[in-house]
Design brief:
9 helices
Length: 269
């Protein structure tokens, strides 16, 4: 979204340039009509000059009115530097994501930032396992089609929920550092429950990834040899047959060689 203050001043400059341009046109056409009309008399060309001059004067007046009306309005306040920084950051991320490998790079940076925020937390172990499992599932997602597509969507929702649960664990652990002594047991119990839920959720996610890998493996397995192997075997047999045929053809086209004993004429006494 554009800055309202910059958009206001840009529009103000555009109106001022337009008003000046039409003022120059009006002055030029009005002067030409005032000079040429008395010498040539009144006629159709004079009407054209006068109409052009009058239209230019009217447009110039309207532009100046619009310019003064806009200039009388208060300019929007300057943007907050923090908000401007966020907008610049969002534009930079959007530009990087349009690159061929930009989206994966941005996702990796975000993943590393989230993991850095969990350092020292009990959630870092499950988070790391969840990262590995999600990357594995991303590699399998292109082959999970047909009846397995709903499982991919459920996995995406579950992954987001588990990541949110890990952030909750880290938040509770930060609160434990300065919590009063009488509130610590309740927070410890809540943290323990959240960690158990996170562990069980990551285990379930890993089982889902293993099931997805099994589906991909069974979907690509056949009762006989793989079609690629049979095609390669057929191609090898064909090339071997062609080579043998060329060898036989070469033997047939070569001239018959006469032994050296037959080439030597018999010696007379």
């Amino acid at each position: 979204m554009a800055d309202p203050r910059a958009r206001y001043f840009r529009r103000l400059r555009r109106l001022r340039r337009s008003a000046r341009r039409w003022s120059v046109f009006a002055a030029g056409l009005g002067g030409a009509a005032a000079v040429l009309t008395p010498y040539a008399g009144l006629g159709l060309p004079d009407a054209a000059w006068a109409a052009a001059a009058g239209g230019s004067i009217a447009l110039a007046a309207w532009r100046w009115v619009d310019f003064r009306a806009l200039a009388a309005e208060p300019a929007p306040p300057p943007p907050d530097p923090a908000l401007a920084g966020e907008q610049a950051r969002a534009k930079l991320i959007a530009a990087v994501q349009r690159l061929p490998v930009g989206r994966s790079a941005v996702d990796e940076v975000r993943r590393q930032q989230a993991r850095f925020g969990l350092r020292g937390s009990a959630a870092i172990g499950p988070w790391t396992r969840l990262d590995r499992a999600s990357l594995t599932l991303s590699g399998l997602a292109g082959r999970l089609t047909g009846p397995s597509e709903p499982a991919v969507l459920e996995a995406a929702v579950a992954e987001q929920s588990l990541r949110d649960l890990a952030q909750r664990v880290a938040t509770v652990e930060k609160a434990l550092r300065f919590a009063p002594a009488d509130t610590r047991p309740a927070l410890e119990e809540a943290r323990r429950t959240l960690v158990e839920q996170l562990e069980s959720g990551v285990v379930a996610y890993e089982r889902l990834v293993a099931a997805a890998a099994s589906y991909v493996a069974e979907d690509g397995r056949t009762a006989t040899e793989h079609p690629a192997v049979s095609r390669l075997t057929e191609a090898s047999d064909m090339l071997r047959g062609v080579a043998m045929g060329l060898a036989e053809l070469r033997d047939l086209t070569e001239p018959m060689r006469i032994p050296d004993q037959l080439r030597t004429p018999p010696q007379t006494a």
